[in-house]
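User: What would this chain look like folded?
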Amino acid sequence: MVSSQGRSRQQRRADREAVRAYHEAQLELLLERVREGFARYDEGAIDAFGLDDLIHRYKRATQKLWSACVGGGSQVESMARMLEWQRVEGEETDWWELVARRDR
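Assistant: Here's the prediction, encoded as structure tokens.
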């Protein structure tokens, strides 16, 4: 039988892993936006200023993501619970759009 302290330790470890995996997956999605931006630049669809704006947006999005995912104890636990809630509700934070709303 696992003690309540052992269970909470296991839960914290699981929370950290879930948040770490989410953080990495979201970073990959944001990096894909940057790849698409470079492709659009190479095609002539956007100019250097457009690509620069895209890169700044990427940086703001990753900062928001980092703030949500990195931290100690209760912050990681809260983020893990939020991720569970989002999965149940079929919702997910779109970090790219989150910073775009601020730009408008």
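The chain has four helices and no strands. If you want, I can go into more detail on any region.
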